[in-house]
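Quick check before the chapter quiz. The format below is the same one you will see on the exam, so make sure you can read both the input and the output lines.
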Amino acid sequence: MNIQALKYEIIEWITRTNDNSLLKTLKSIKDSNSATADWFDNLSQEEVESLNRGISDHDKEDVLTSKEFWAGYGEKL
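Here is the expected output.
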C-alpha cells in the first residue's frame, strides 16, 4: 500500500468513528508530534551557539570524562 492510499484509508476511518476517546488519543499523538518536530527552531541564538560549541569541542575531542570533570570541579560545587 502506498503512503497516499494509507493516508486516505486513515482519514476515512477517522471520519466514520464516533469514539471520543480514540479521537482524543489521536489528537494527543498529533500534538506531541508537532511539539517535538521543530524543537531546534525554538532555541534562542545563545542556545544554538552553545550547542554548536559543544559539537565543535566533541569533534576536536576537547572533552572531559565524567571522572575528570568531578575530579577538577566536584569540590567547587
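If your answer matched, good. The two ends are 58 Å apart (CA to CA).
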